């Protein structure tokens, strides 16, 4: 008997448990995929899906890595990743490296590698999911699909409960503070500010934190370049700067612009430093939990002046 995975997230908090039945029909973003048996050799080409496999206790045999411009892989995944072979980057994987690992399932982000789907399917069944927006319900749906594929459905309820507790705590804290208009983004080595767009993965998290992303436009690259003059005109209450591997040198380069001292958020000590790896690159459930926690601990959520945070 085949079991069909729904494309909308169903209630996953039931105490009823059952083993997955194969062949298994998976309705993914790249169509209907039939898995003849439970996969044992999984390759993952997206950090959010890797995040959720980690929560389910499943270790893949190969992973797509960060590209050279993004810095290192997310710190919270590094211990898990340390002995897993890389197969190129997440959006430009090596078909040869993938084939050598003899996978029986390939997982990826549909917006990254949909064009490679036919080639990947020749190597192993390929399931492409949509998790790049970082929406909580999308991530829960992905978790449910992955749990059924790997026969780990019994773990889902506890994972979701823990996530919801962290998220609801952050939302409750955020409602105690006035709504803020913010810019969030990273700075290039040359000192250019790249603000995350309205369709970036951080935007729904900002909404939970009672903050409005001043960048209302969408971008295929999930970012738009903003001049210092543009920042002054937007007049954000707060600015969150995403650091690549903790490197402050791009921010120091931006500060060389004499107009930076006129930015209201700078004058009011409302500039915060967050981790680019989780705010702009990783989309899974654990990554979202880290975003909420980092927003609290940095003072960004409550609007605590950053100099006070740095002195603690």
UniProtKB/TrEMBL annotation:
Its main location: other. The keyword Nucleotide-binding does not apply. The keyword DNA repair does not apply. InterPro entries: ABC_transptr_periplasmic_BD, Bact_iron-sidero_bind. Keywords: Ion transport, Iron, Iron transport, Signal, Transport. It is found in: Cell envelope. Residues 1-19 form the signal peptide. Gene3D superfamilies: Nitrogenase molybdenum iron protein domain. PROSITE patterns: FE_B12_PBP. Residues 41-304 form the Fe/B12 periplasmic-binding domain. GO terms for biological process: iron coordination entity transport. One of its GO terms (cellular component) is outer membrane-bounded periplasmic space. Belongs to the bacterial solute-binding protein 8 family. PANTHER family: IRON III DICITRATE-BINDING PERIPLASMIC PROTEIN (PTHR30532), IRON(3+)-HYDROXAMATE-BINDING PROTEIN FHUD (PTHR30532:SF1). This is Iron-siderophore ABC transporter substrate-binding protein.
């Amino acid at each position: 008997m085949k079991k069909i995975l729904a494309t909308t997230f169903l209630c996953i908090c039931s105490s009823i448990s059952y083993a997955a039945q194969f062949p298994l029909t998976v309705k993914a973003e790249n169509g209907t995929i039939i898995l003849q048996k439970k996969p044992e050799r999984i390759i993952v080409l997206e950090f959010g899906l890797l995040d959720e496999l980690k929560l389910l206790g499943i270790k893949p045999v190969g992973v797509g890595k960060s590209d050279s411009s993004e810095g290192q892989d997310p710190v919270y995944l590094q211990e898990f990743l340390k002995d897993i072979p890389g197969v190129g980057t997440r959006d430009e994987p090596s078909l040869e490296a993938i084939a050598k690992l003899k996978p029986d399932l390939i997982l990826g982000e549909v917006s990254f590698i949909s064009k490679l789907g036919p080639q990947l399917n020749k190597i192993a069944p390929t399931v492409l999911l949509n998790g790049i927006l970082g929406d909580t319900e999308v991530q829960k749906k992905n978790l449910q699909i992955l749990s059924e594929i790997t026969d780990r459905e019994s773990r889902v309820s506890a994972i979701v409960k823990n996530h919801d507790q962290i998220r609801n705590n952050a939302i409750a804290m955020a409602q105690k503070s006035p709504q803020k208009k913010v810019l969030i983004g990273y700075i290039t080595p040359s000192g250019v500010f790249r603000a995350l767009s309205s369709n970036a993965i951080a935007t729904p998290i900002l909404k939970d934190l009672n903050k409005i992303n001043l960048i209302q436009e969408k971008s295929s690259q999930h970012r738009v370049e903003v001049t210092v003059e543009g920042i002054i005109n937007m007049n954000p209450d707060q600015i969150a700067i995403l650091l690549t591997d903790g490197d402050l040198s791009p921010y120091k380069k931006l500060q060389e612009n004499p107009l930076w001292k006129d930015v209201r958020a700078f004058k009011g000590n409302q500039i915060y430093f967050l981790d680019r790896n989780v705010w702009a690159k990783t989309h899974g459930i654990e990554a979202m939990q880290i975003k909420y926690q980092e927003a609290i601990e940095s003072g960004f959520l409550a609007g605590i002046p950053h100099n006070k945070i740095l002195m603690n």
